[in-house]
Specification:
By secondary structure, the protein is an alpha/beta fold. The protein is built from 16 helices and 22 strands. It is globular, with a radius of gyration of 23 Å. Bound molecules: 1,4-dihydronicotinamide adenine dinucleotide (NAI) and magnesium ion.
């Protein structure tokens, strides 16, 4: 790409939002939806419109898939390492846009820049660098079938991959899907979330400076009218989805009609178990990270059920509350802000309704931090984080995914009782246990029903560590070499008879 054509970072997110307004990215170029229709993109901190996004529909899906199918032929002819190098180059170029992307995602999602949005933008490249390095791992096997026959297996790309993504960590969750899909030789069509179409569109535009046109296309639009036709499109051979259980099941049903594979990364109700011998301060710090208070709890792995041994319960709650109280809620773009806003009115209402239900069912809603005082944010979707006490694992608040800054601290006495309660959930995404006892730790890691179990820490998704859930939390794991091989290639057996 000649330097003169290279995109320069635009640090004013409002100006960048305007520039991207009303556009999809198809066949390498920004273009309006075929109908010319658009929908509103809101800044949840002010309630004001920041841009309009192109309203992609079936006709746009058809155009995007046609572009991807055409481009995929040439892309798959490149060697795997060449594709990997291009994907790594995408990572390098994205790194020059960290500040810009961080600001843009903060504007559209309300996630605080310092604690969340810039962090998301700055770890994005790592996913492309990681997968870009795995091109030569797309290996097959040689099979000792018959001495007069050479029998091998090969990994082939699937073709066109459809990816449907959510709004909470939109760039990162998109990267975990498209990086392995691209390195494996597929072309992709992404459908962004209604609430956060801009930063992922900009990411796609930046990557299209490096990738051949049509290899990576992105559509914005509504779930049923744009995501639906993408899943159903006859030329889409694989769908990868992150979002709600309910929508995941719709996607799975549609895919079943075509008999194509799907990967589903769904919700969670992740338990955190604090044993009586745990390092209390460390566990409290772990709860802050685990519950993703800085992201208003809008995380599928949020530690939204915190089981604390009765000997530590009261002290744990008061220390946790003090820490959340000390966090600053306010303007997502202000460097002083720790906690921004909820994404949308719909999610705001959902969070509020759970706080009401929890209180009505006998829980004590300990509200933390303070609402922003600036009148500019009076219409902002701010919610004070709530630490519920006095609820059991049977309560609605402890059973259903809230996807907001609401956690339950539940008292327990006995180890067997807490393992049973932790596993008594429809979900099984992540779990942590906090203890100094190695035997307890090992036993719990074996018995906790979750795709990701950690002891005395609460790390988030890391490239190279398998990530994904069991039970209602999803199907298939992401973030590893295995994920690329299993989800984005198909195996072919070849026999050469030499007799
Ligand atoms: P959603 O699952 O409805 O939306 C996720 C994506 O699916 C969006 O791009 C949406 O446009 C698309 N979609 C919606 N309906 C579709 C359909 N019929 N066909 C194809 N695509 C469709 O989630 P939503 O409404 O944003 O949030 C609802 C709840 O889902 C949250 O409260 C939370 O509990 C959960 N959620 C979980 C996430 C996770 O990371 N696992 C992320 C976002 C939401
Ligand atoms: Mg929905």
């Amino acid at each position: 790409m000649p330097a003169s054509n290279a995109l320069s970072p635009i640090l004013d997110p409002q100006a960048l939002a305007q520039q991207l307004s009303g556009k999809l990215l198809l066949d390498g170029a920004l273009t309006p939806a075929l109908s010319g229709k658009t929908f509103e993109v809101m800044n949840p901190a002010t309630g004001k419109t920041v841009a309009r996004a192109a309203l992609g529909e079936k006709a746009d899906v058809d155009a995007a898939v046609a572009s991807a199918a055409k481009a995929q032929v040439g892309w798959a002819k490149m060697t795997a390492r060449q594709r990997g190098k291009a994907v790594q180059e995408c990572g390098r170029v994205l790194n020059e846009h960290v500040e810009e992307l961080g600001r843009l995602v903060a504007l559209e999602t309300g996630k605080a820049l310092r604690t969340e949005s810039r962090v998301e933008a700055s770890i994005l490249a790592d996913v492309f660098v990681f997968y870009g390095g795995l091109g030569s791992e797309l290996k097959g096997e040689s099979v000792p079938f018959n001495n007069d026959m050479l029998t091998v297996t090969m990994r082939e790309p699937i073709g066109v991959v459809g990816a449907i993504i959510p709004w909470n960590v939109p760039m990162m969750l998109m990267a975990l899907k498209i990086a392995p899909a691209l390195v494996a030789g597929n072309a992709v069509v992404v459908k962004s979330a209604e609430e956060a179409p801009l930063a992922v569109l900009r990411t796609c535009q930046i990557m299209n400076q490096v990738l051949p046109p049509g290899v990576f296309n992105i559509l914005s639009g509504m779930g049923p009218e744009c995501g639906g036709p993408l899943v159903a499109h006859p030329k889409v051979g694989k769908v990868t989805f992150t979002g709600s259980v309910e929508t995941g099941k719709i996607v799975y049903r549609t895919a079943a009609e075509k008999l194509i594979p799907v990967t589903l990364e769904l919700g969670g109700k992740s338990p955190m178990i604090v044993m009586g011998d745990a390092d209390l301060d460390r566990a409290v710090a772990g709860a802050i990270v685990g519950m993703r208070f800085t992201r208003q709890g809008q995380s599928c792995t949020a530690a939204s059920r915190i089981f604390v041994h009765e000997t530590l319960h009261d002290e744990f709650v008061s220390k946790l509350k003090a820490k959340v109280d000390a966090m600053v809620m306010g303007d997502p773009l202000d460097e002083k802000t720790d906690i921004g806003t909820i994404i949308s009115q719909q999610q705001f209402d959902k969070v509020k309704s759970y706080i009401k239900v929890g209180t009505e069912s006998g829980g004590k809603a300990n509200a933390c931090s303070a609402m922003p005082s600036d009148a500019k944010f009076k219409d902002g979707l701010f919610v004070q984080p709530v630490i519920f006490t006095g609820l059991t694992n049977d309560s609605k608040v402890a059973r259903e995914e809230i996807f907001g800054p609401v956690t339950c601290v539940i008292k327990f006495r006995d180890y067997e009782e807490v393992i049973a309660a932790a596993n008594d959930s429809d979900y099984g995404l992540a779990a942590t246990i906090w203890t100094k006892d190695l035997k307890t730790a090992l036993d719990a890691t074996r018995r906790l029903q979750a795709g990701f179990v950690q002891v005395n820490q609460n790390l988030v998704v890391q490239p190279g560590l398998s990530y994904g859930g069991v039970k209602q939390s999803g199907l298939g794991k992401e973030a590893t070499l295995e994920a690329m091989l299993e989800h984005f290639t198909q195996k072919k057996t070849i026999i050469l008879n030499m007799t």
